[in-house]
Amino acid sequence: MSPRSIRYPQPLVKGNTIGVAAPSSGVGESMYRYLEQSKQHLEHLGFIIQESLSLRNNSKCVSAPKETRAAELNAFMLDPGIQAVIPPWGGEFLMDILPLLDWKALKKSPAKWVLGYSDISTFLFTYTLLTGTASAHGTNYVDLRSSELDPVTARWLDVLQTKAGEEILQVSSTHYQSEWKMELPGFNLDTPSRWEQLGAAEGTNTSAHFSGRLLGGCMDTITCLIGTPFAPVEHYVQQYCAEEGTIWYLESCEMNAGDIYRRLWQMRQSWLVCWGERLPVWAACRLFEHVRFYIYRCFVFRSR
Q1: Phi-psi region of 260 (alpha: psi -120 to 50; beta: other; left: phi over 0)
Q2: Alpha-carbon dihedral sign for residues 176, 119, 74, 106
Q3: CB count, 10 Å around CB of 34?
Q4: C-alpha neighbours within 13 Å on the C-beta side of residue 67
Q5: Each residue of 82-112: pLDDT tens digit?
Q6: Among 161, 232, 225, which Cα is nearest to 18's?
Q7: Which residue of 75, 77, 233, 268 is 20 to 30 Å from 98, comparing CA positions?
Q8: Of 255, 265, 275, whose CA–CA distance to 297 is shortest?
């Protein structure tokens, strides 16, 4: 394998087993019905569902002590009988398990799809950086409990079924969910989405064309990895993105405009050596009202 080749998991096919582990928050009894609905939907699609022992527990924002969560995720990732791992949702403290995972074994084991967002991106980010394996930043398990998903969410299976070297075309959602309504299955897309090129004059039609490897996740959680062994961004960019370049994608969960600016500034200072040619910053959906006055000053860069 070329030292610059990203590892892509085998495409997910009917009959495969999907492991549902909770490396961050678990699911309390009052929400067991969401797990049952998601399980029923995925089994209808032809998949076998295997739950971790701690999935149906949740105390102080975690499914189990860090040692147990790490052991369960490690076991699912190394089990050849499990072809993909989809956690129920994110949480707060996934970073606690990173030092406890067997990264040498994960790097040697066959690539495996892991799908999720929010705090799950803490693992996705590190898994990609340390093992050179593609990961999927997308819907969580409980979001799949509806048989009628919105057009963007419904593409999760298309992505996980794409073979190495093949292409998949995705477009942004026309609407976004303004607030959580857990009683409704899937996402309640009730507000029109709007993309903006930050820093451009208001009312102007702008466009940009760029390419590269996607890297990123939830700013609230991945920025806590700066300065640790779990965020070797410079090595990854030099090893895998020297020719293609890097496009950063970032989501924010609980930060205000000032928080977002400070985290972007920290990322830029910490990983500046990896960034070169400046590109426009694009923001979508529910960025806070005053973010545009902060964020464009920090910029997003395309790695060389």
Answers
A1: alpha
A2: positive
A3: 19
A4: 0
A5: 999 999 999 999 999 999 999 999 999 999 9
A6: 161
A7: 268
A8: 265
